Amino acid sequence: MAISLNINNAGLRAHELEQTKFLVDASYQHLMSREGAGNDFLGWLNLPFEYDKEEFARIKAAAKKIQAQSEVLIAIGIGGSYLGARAGLEFSKGPFYNQLASKGEGVEVYFAGNNISSAYVSYLMQIIGDRDFSVNVISKSGTTTEPAVAFRIFKAKLEEKYGKEGAKDRIYATTDAKKGALRGLAVAEGYETFVVPDATGGRFSCLTAVGLLPMAAGGMDIDAVMKGCEDACVKYNNPDLYTNDAMKYAATRFIMLMKGKSVEILSNYEPALTQFGEWYKQLMAESEGKDGKGLFPVSANFSTDLHSIGQFIQDGSRTMFETVLWVQKSACDIAVPDDPANVDGLNFASGKTMQYMNEKAMNGTMLAHVDGGVPNIIITLDELNDHNFGELVYFFWKSLGISAYMLGVNPFNQPGVEDYKKNMFALLGKPGYEDMKADLEARLAAVL
Ligand code: PA5
Fold first, then answer.
1. Is residue 421 annotated as a catalytic residue, yes or no?
2. Residue among 53, 165, 307, 418 flagged as catalytic
3. What pLDDT, in 10s, does the model give residues 345-356?
């Protein structure tokens, strides 16, 4: 089994799952019958059986073209429009995937448009240097400010380097099929376009063209990714709480919240999972954190973070539980060399693999955290590969869909994201926000 769940260390009493079963069952049915809130955004539910095969073939062809034309791909997007691809590339190819790109068939893939920092853009420009590059601009709405700003900048750089026609041949736009400024621009300029399906919200879109094109350009096998998603779709299409790990995980998280454990830490022991933690945070926070409810998702990278937030987890305020992502088989086995002098006193580890030591660190940490009042859930992956990325993504989608309905929230909207945008637009003088501007400026003058 590629992915398995262990809740033995979550500290549940024998009856707790059973007494939550009616609610998990109802939420599962609510999701599967497509009767719940936000049910017009369930495009991901049967995605591996319903995706557009013609577009999928175009994605693979576009990835090959990018690899033939460029050394670097700049993927421009924010939130759900970039986190999945970034997580997938690191999951599959490791934290140094860009530095190692020249050893495989993939190009270097960098992400822009996920902040408003000119320093960040300038560093990226230095990384591109004189090299050939292409751009994939990704925005479902086609109106998001951060990627729109970055796209203007990188489009201008492409046009300066290759001319307008040459630039056009290196720009790929992934957006809504019909509406939005980006769709209009892509049509007007004649870019190759890919579609974010209507029924697929940003954080459920990484296995559509949104994530698949950057992942394929970076050298991932997107057939294997979709096969993993398909396997999970079949596996978790099961209404039995006791044999469906997606339901069991949802139920356990809900019980944790009821017990006052309002922070979930997704921890890992593989640096390749750092960006997966970022993807998970967005999925959980934007889907569940509303109407005054939800678990606050945090991610931690061990053993690195055991030397920073580890102190707090062990001994700080007792509001958290931990979900450990554990990878059984490392990409390679490196053993600790023996040193007859043993000046560093490390010979107790001579000959042992780092994976073996990592496992002992995970085991020891889990027991310490449980003893310290931090219940642990363990999700074990047999290894990190393209298939398992697709499978794990779907596992979290499905479980989150169930747990959000258990909380009584609509998992598929994000009304809270709009508030900062309105203030920013007003302060920037965007037409339509004039009424708010004076009031905001007066408030800022009083406090800054
Ligand atoms: O999950 C979501 O819906 C959001 O995080 C969006 O992905 C994000 O705001 C970017 O939106 P867009 O793709 O419309 O630019």
1. yes
2. 307
3. 999 999 999 999
| 387 classed as catalytic | no
Burial of 78 (0-12, 13-18, 19+ CB in 10 A): buried
Examine the residue annotation and report whether 30 is marked as an active-site residue of this protein.
no
Predicted TM-score (pTM) of the model is: 0.97
Side-chain-side CA neighbours of residue 307 (13 Å): 3
The pLDDT tens digits of the residues spanning 46-81 come to: 999 999 999 999 999 999 999 999 999 999 999 999
Q: Active-site residue among 30, 281, 421, 430?
A: 421
| d(C-alpha 211, C-alpha 207), whole Å | 6
For residue 23, give the nearest of 191, 222, 255, 184 by alpha carbon.
255
Q: In this structure, are residues 408 and 292 in contact, taking their beta carbons and an 8 Å threshold?
A: no
As a whole number of angstroms, the distance between CA 337 and CA 84 comes to 37
Q: Own/partner pairs for 40-45, CB < 8 Å, 24+ apart?
A: 40/198, 40/199, 41/199, 41/200, 41/201, 41/204, 41/412, 42/199, 42/412, 43/197, 43/198, 43/199, 43/200, 43/204, 44/200, 44/204, 44/205, 44/207, 44/394, 44/397, 45/233, 45/401
- Averaged pLDDT for residues 181-197: 96
The residue whose CB lies within 8 Å of the most ligand 1 atoms, and thus the one to mutate among 40, 76, 78, is: 78
Ligand 1: atom nearest CA of 78 is 10
Q: pLDDT tens digits, residue range 210-229?
A: 999 999 999 999 999 999 99
- Give me the amino acid identity at 38: G
Asked if the model's pLDDT at residue 231 lies above 90, the reply is yes
Tokens of 200: 């697929």
Ligand 1 atom closest to the Cα of residue 196 is 13
The candidate with the shortest Cα–Cα distance to 199, out of 42, 88, 417, is 42
**Interacting residues of 74 by C-beta distance below 8 A, sequence separation 6+:** 110, 111, 112, 124, 128, 133, 134, 135, 136, 154
Is the distance from the beta carbon of residue 78 to the nearest atom of ligand 1 less than 6 Å? yes
8 A C-beta contact, residue 59 and residue 173: no
How is the beta sheet containing 72-76 ordered, strand by strand? 108-112, 72-76, 133-139, 171-175, 192-195
pLDDT in tens, 71-125: 999 999 999 999 999 999 999 999 999 999 988 889 999 999 999 999 999 999 9
Please report the atom of ligand 1 found closest to the CA of residue 138. 13
Return the sign of the alpha-carbon dihedral for residues 297, 303, 309, 311: positive
